[in-house]
Amino acid sequence: MSRWGGTLRALLRSGPLSGRIGLALVLFWFAAAVAGPWLAPHPVGAFVDRDVFGPMSARFWLGSDYLGRDVLSRLLWGARYTVLLALGAALLAGSCGTALALTAAVRGGWIDEALARAMDTLISIPSKIFALVLVAAFGSSLPLLLLISSVIYIPGNFRIARALATNLVGMDFVAVARARGEGAVHIALREVLPNMVQPLLADMGLRFVFIVLLLSGLSFLGLGVQPPYADLGSLVRENISGLTEGAPAIIMPALAIATLTVGANLLIDALGAGKGRR
Amino acid sequence: MSAASAPRTMLSGLLPLLGKRVASALLTLLLVSAVIFTVSGLLPGDAAQETLGQSATPEQVAALRHEIGLDRPALARYADWLAGMVRGDPGTSMVANMPVREIIAQRLPNSLMLAGFTALISVPLALAIGIASAVNRGGKLDRALNIMTLSMVAVPEFLVATLGVLVFSVKLLWLPSIALVSDTSTWGELIRSSTLPVLTLTVVVTAQMARMTRAAVADQLDRPYVEMAQLKGVRFSRVVLAHVMPNALGPIVNAVALSLSYLMGGAIIVETIFSFPGLASLMVNAVTSRDMPLLQACAMIFCTAYLLLVLTADVVAIMANPRLRAQ
Amino acid sequence: MTAPHIEVSGLTIEAGGRAIVNDVSFAIPRGQVTALIGESGSGKTTTALALMGHTRPGARISGGMIRIGDTRIDQLGEAGLTALRGRRVSYIAQSAAAAFNPSRTIMAQVIEPLLVHGLAGRKEAEVKAIALFRALALPSPESIGARYPHQLSGGQLQRLMAAMALITDPELVILDEPTTALDVTTQVDVLKLFKAAIAKSGASAIYVSHDLAVVAQMADRIAVLRYGVLHEEGPARTVLETPRDHYTRTLIAAARPVERPVAPETAGASAPLLSVEGVTAGYGAVRDGVPAVPVLRDVSFVLAPGATLGVIGESGSGKSTLARVIAGLLPRAEGSVHFGGVGLPAGLKGRSREQFRRVQLVFQNADTALNPAHSVATILSRPLAFYHGLKGAAARARVEELLDLIHLPRDIAGRPVRGLSGGQKQRINLARALAAGPDLLLCDEVTSALDTVVGAAILELIDDLRRRLGIATVFISHDISTVRAFCDQVLVLYGGRVVEQGSREGFASGRHHPYTRLLMDSVPEMHPGWLEHTGEGRAPALPGAPVGEELCRFLPRCPVAIAGRCDRTPAPLHRERDRQWLCHHDAAALAMKETV
Ligand SMILES: Nc1ncnc2c1ncn2[C@@H]1O[C@H](COP(=O)(O)OP(=O)(O)OP(=O)(O)O)[C@@H](O)[C@H]1O
Ligand code: SF4
Ligand SMILES: [Mg+2]
């Protein structure tokens, strides 16, 4: 953990500009997700503007939507659903995938083979297709969306974590621990896991980006977050008729998603820069 | 091992290896079909009840259950379903009341065309970007391209698409925002109406492919044999073409395969926005109308396409690598 | 006096704002070989590459003059350098396995310098390459070019790399540790061929190495580098025999292991601590007591408490496997291991914590043997807590004692291992094993990843500690002189079989198994001229003899194999009081062979 903190500090001190921009964007949206509802100038569902698709104005900073609601307020609420759902799903996918991967790598043998085969199967179902099948089967309430998007990204995380763990399990220091008589749990948690934290966090960050894109894509298709809730993708969908006039009501939520995901990507890239890129 | 017998050993060594890959892909496909059938056919509850609604009597429900075979054991139902898939007859759409096969036959060519056009543009573009940044790795060009591709992979498709519509259809009035593809379209119409979808997809897949190409080429450029070739007095352009590319080919083809498979399924949003009559938007409709046979068939087609592409990449990688080839 | 063929003066190369080569000057007369010698990181390779106008990414030549013949390398542009490289100056890399392109045939790569410089057509180039293959004693020279690098051994690749370097008749050849990756028996052959080939071509050469004895054979002049600074330069004989510089003297001293006294009363008075009986082990599924990939075959030995056993053998002979089998990391397929009179279970399962504690492993590479996520204190306290239940202040005090024991400052305890030097890491690695309070230490090549001087200090430390603490040691090494200097008993592995073992005195008797003989004759000695006189009659007596599972594994390489016996029946085991060997030759015959 301290190493991660150190990398962050190094980024702030001397990292590339893109990384600092990324960090600012990510922090901004996380803050919006946490504090947004208190900051929202208008109630989320209230029809406050007589005009629809109103332009940006002093009263409605980001204009009004297709029903005359305040876009800024809806955006702040939407960001909460998008960020928190994706974050929860990414954490869930990351911890399940990693736990399975550690089991597979440390235990080896048939457990490893069975898990790897199962994950290979799931990974062969393209993520959006899988999402559609799951939504069709189970529906799309908020808890289900959380579960669905984490299930879809467990295999990817498993694959990376298993590659890392298998590598580490082959290292001499694990052989030393085994020859010392240590049990599987000590080896997995004390010897192997601490060496995977940094790449795993980076992977979790990437998965967060994928999940944001997946969830907003689903919502955009009308298959994701359902009314009365609305995430950023839903906002784009409900205002699609404003496209021909270039209304801020459709541009702003789309931009919000893009700044969040691009920001996260820039940040992860900058944090990994010292290691991955030469 | 001697030179004379090399071609023969190569072939006879290659066949079992290829056979193993094909068998493994088929096994995966089988498992995938089981997952899809379980998720969409077994778990969601009673299709008969759903079709008839809450007011139906238990007798009516039971009769329908029997009619569509829901009262049979799960394994038998899976076997029937799988046999139908293999025969190319995935059943009848309950919603459209026509064979799934016919519905798909109308849409598949459109999807293939969309993917084909996009691949034609994006693959060369991605290779050029990837190689250019790898060769200049650490330099200004590389950093600029890195930021560009990094942002592009993170931008949602619908933002790219809406911006495209806004610029080319609304502001400039150059292109139609809605793709009307039908049997009677002329080539000119076809190209005009697919331009925006193709452009959007190109933006979306090129970046990922370019990044993976860069990684593959950069990885090779850091190997000792590259330094050795330069120390032999080989010009850098030749080092890249004759020494690096054969070794980077495997990972690059893999990247291309992954991106192309994305084109097939990931076109969902693009097809929907532009009302492009492809397979992906068909699948979205199947989800909304809970048309399970149609949904399952589409899912299987996408998974098969994915596995085919990955398998092809695998085979190319084996052919390109003398070490794998000789085993 | 004409000007020397090659001249370097005031060469300075910077990387990251630091001079990694600092004001280095030397000259090479035409047709002579100059050796650049020094520890890893001393700037040898950087200096040598500068003669081709090449620097690794991040480094840059910031000053000085480099001249080859009439050409000022430092003033050439990229085009000029490309025209020069591979034509007038050529390079032989340390690891041929990495320096060959894995997906192109050997022939395509060997003739490439001729083709890209337009010196010959393809046909003509191939003819020339085949002639060079023949001169370098490569097998089937006509067809070897059609192979890919992974189909050839390290020694063969190294020679092919020489062919690639010599094919354009360059005036300067740079050899960068060309034999470091090779086994010592292969090294001799490669050195001889290189020396002859370079002499024949009349080229001048730069020979980069860390091995003084090898350099003594190859070089006319020696330049000693340390931290990028030239410490001494002069004729080889002068530098080796009357070194002027203090650092050169340290290097020479470290290269000669000092013989240790034999441990008292090892002569079987006490019950053996470790006894290994008929052990067979390997990888893959075990069928009828034989694994799919057998590595060790029927290995037996005993070790008294406090004694040292040296295990030698070439890479792949199964030395590390032996250590892993004793530790239980690799379950044996057959045979038994008794420790302190009690049979040890084959694998880790079923061993008691006490049994684990008493046997400790020290791995070759401390970089991978120490968990990079942990601090020194965490690493050392774990065995203390695990075996002895020590916690808190008591554990801290013990960690400090351990650090004293291995001569490291106490304040190192809080540091992560990542920042430590190779020697420091290896000491921590050793201390962790000592923390358990073991009776048996398994040391696998503990110095081979270290520089000579650092390695010598570690050896010294191990020897001192095991004597003081009375720990028995299995000391695995590929270096026969180290083993002979340190160990009470010596065991020689070849192809997974014990071909010879004996006490140190028995071993000194001078009669040896033919493989041991070859091994001993292959260790370069420090005096120039050794290479010319060694290894008369090294050629196999029955080349192309069958490699049978039951036959002597050394048969295809054995210079004294007996036709009709060695290729028909398994070699019998001969025993004498203090030694035994596995060969068709008996003691008298072996003694005879010695004198040949
Ligand atoms: N996990 C494994 N699977 C299959 N074969 C293996 C494995 N590990 C080692 N081997 C093989 O076992 C043989 C002996 O290996 P080992 O590591 O014991 O050799 P060594 O004498 O220690 O060599 P070195 O001097 O290179 O360290 C080699 O042929 C090696 O390729
Ligand atoms: S048994 Fe024969 S082949 Fe083996 S070492 Fe002895 S003489 Fe040589
Ligand atoms: Mg070893």
Structure description:
Chain A has 278 residues and is mostly helical. Chain A has eleven helices and no strands. The longest helix of chain B is centred in the N-terminal third of the chain and has 37 residues, at 6-42. Chain B has helices spanning 6-42, 47-52, 58-67, 74-87, 100-135, 140-154, 157-171, 187-221, 224-231, 236-266, 268-273, 279-288, 292-320, 322-326; strands at 92-93, 98-99. In chain C, a hairpin with a 2-residue loop joins strand 14 (334-339) and strand 15. In chain C, helix 11 (246-255) crosses helix 18 (452-469) and helix 15 packs parallel to helix 17 (422-435). In chain C, the strands form four sheets. An eight-stranded mixed β-sheet of chain C has the order 16-17-18-13-19-20-22-21, with helices on both faces. Chain C has a six-stranded mixed β-sheet with strand order 6-7-8-3-9-10, sandwiched between helices. The longest helix of chain C has 18 residues, at 184-201. Chains in contact: A-B, A-C, B-C. At the A-B interface, helix 4, helix 5, helix 9 and helix 11 of A face helix 1, helix 6, helix 7, helix 10 and helix 11 of B. The complex binds adenosine-5'-triphosphate, iron/sulfur cluster and magnesium ion. Magnesium ion binds next to helix 12 of chain C.
List the helices and strands and how they pair.
The complex is a heterotrimer of chains A (278), B (327) and C (596).
Chain A lengths: L1 H13 L2 H23 L31 H37 L1 H15 L3 H12 L3 H28 L2 H9 L3 H9 L4 H24 L11 H7 L9 H29 L2
Helix pairs in contact in A: 2-3, 2-11, 3-4, 3-6, 3-8, 3-9, 3-10, 4-6, 5-6, 6-9, 9-10, 9-11, 10-11
Chain B lengths: L5 H37 L4 H6 L5 H10 L6 H14 L4 E2 L4 E2 H36 L4 H15 L2 H15 L15 H35 L2 H8 L4 H31 L1 H6 L5 H10 L3 H29 L1 H5 L1
Antiparallel strand pairs in B: 1-2
Helix pairs in contact in B: 1-4, 1-13, 5-6, 5-8, 5-10, 6-8, 7-8, 8-10, 9-10, 10-13, 12-13
Chain C lengths: L5 E10 L2 E11 L4 E5 L6 H7 L8 E10 L2 E2 L5 H7 L4 E4 L3 H4 L6 H5 L1 H5 L5 H14 L18 H13 L5 E5 L7 H18 L2 E6 L2 H7 L2 E6 L2 E7 H6 L4 H10 L18 E14 L2 E14 L4 E5 L6 H9 L6 E6 L2 E2 L9 H6 E4 L3 H4 L6 H13 L3 H14 L16 H14 L4 E5 L7 H18 L2 E6 L2 H7 L2 E6 L2 E7 H5 L5 H9 L7 H4 L39 E3 L3 E4 L4 H9 L1
Parallel strand pairs in C: 3-8, 3-9, 6-7, 7-8, 13-18, 13-19, 16-17, 17-18
Antiparallel strand pairs in C: 1-2, 1-4, 4-5, 9-10, 11-12, 11-14, 14-15, 19-20, 20-22, 21-22
Helix pairs in contact in C: 7-8, 8-21, 11-18, 15-16, 15-17, 16-17, 17-18
The site of magnesium ion has 4 residues of chain C, from helix 12.
